[in-house]
Amino acid sequence: MGFLDRFKKKEKNNDIDLKFTNSIENEILFSKATQCLQENRNDEAITLFSQILKTEPENIHALNGTGSGLMQSGRLDEAENIFNQSLEIKDNEMAYLNKAIIYGNTGDYENAMKYCDKIIELYPHLKDMAITLKHNFTEQRIKNSDNDSSEINSKAKELIDKANALKDEDETWENDLISEIQPDMPKFRKVTEWDAWELYEDAIEIDPKCETLATSGINEIKAKLLSKFLFFNITMNDDFNPERKLDSLKINIMMYMANENYSKASMAIQEILTTIDENDLDAINYKGALSFYFDDIDEAIECFEMVSKSGNGVYMFYADFNKAFAFRRKAMITGDYDYMVKALDIYDEMLKDPQSFEIVKPYQREILDKIQSFMNVPLF
Questions:
Q1: Cα-flanking dihedrals φ and ψ of residue 332, to 5°?
Q2: Rounded to whole angstroms, how far apart are CA atoms 62 and 29?
Q3: d(Cα 258, Cα 54) in Å, to the nearest integer?
Q4: DSSP, res 145
Q5: What is the structure's pLDDT at 5?
Q6: How far apart are CA 327 and CA 341, in angstroms?
Q7: Helix axes 127-144, 93-105, angle to 10 degrees
Q8: Quick one: which of 123, 207, 300, 320 is 20 to 30 A from 306 by CA?
Q9: What local confidence, expressed as pLDDT, does residue 144 receive?
Q10: Counting Cβ atoms within 10 Å, is residue 90 exposed (0-12), middle (13-18) or buried (19+)?
Q11: In the chain, what percentage of residues exceed pLDDT 70?
């Protein structure tokens, strides 16, 4: 009995499933080709995939594998042609995803983001990955942009300059509010990031040519605000084991987020929630934080509400705090001040706990000032 005959016997016993091809011989070739891709032996992988395509010319898995090998070899034009062939046979997420990456690598960020949007629309399970890619393409466009700020509309440039000054302002506000919890309330730095963010967005609306400059400032603000979210120290857990995959992934997530490597953090979060524990509170909270960063505010609110309902004290505290951030951003996006009031209600409730005072008070005060300005009446 030959080597392939042994596998054929197993196939009859249902020990081997045909997942990607129509024959056991091609399934073996596919497994070998995939292994070659993982080891960057791209020419070997392409050869093996081509053998499958001789008998299964419309096998989109083999076509996408060929395209991946060509991409990894830097042969982007050939890879794009292969992915186009795959899409002519059938709409599929891998071809769309790889085409987005190709466009991003060639600097065509507009088309790259269009394909990301298509993935988000058609394939919800890849939503987080597509959002992460869009963020990366935005960052690349900013870095590679050669826009001359002198060409920007003067009003937009004025708003950007004002926002730049505001986002790093260190002015403090005095204790002009009576507090039963903290009668001798210390000075706090004014929270100016939200106003700066709005100014950046106003500048983009006035002159889209300033988007790269403004987006760079916005991303700085997002990273600054994100540092306020809870990155729970899992090493404090009694059952912490760095050799366990779950704990190892969480450590990596914290490192990625601390270094603003949000794309890798997002992939690690997805690995926990899809392969280990879909109810892990740390991962859900991290997912909410990244959703906030990528401006998927509804998903952020949903994540923080899930964590808040867990009944765990430390999670409830930070989930509510994070949810208030999300409501504050929702108010900016929609122009609906009811969301700002929702954030204020959360802060007011949290201020009943003296231990949360120092964290919460500056953000509560920022909203009070904003609502007072909007209503044009004193609130205190």
A1: -65, -45
A2: 10
A3: 49
A4: -
A5: 44
A6: 9
A7: 10
A8: 123
A9: 67
A10: exposed
A11: 85
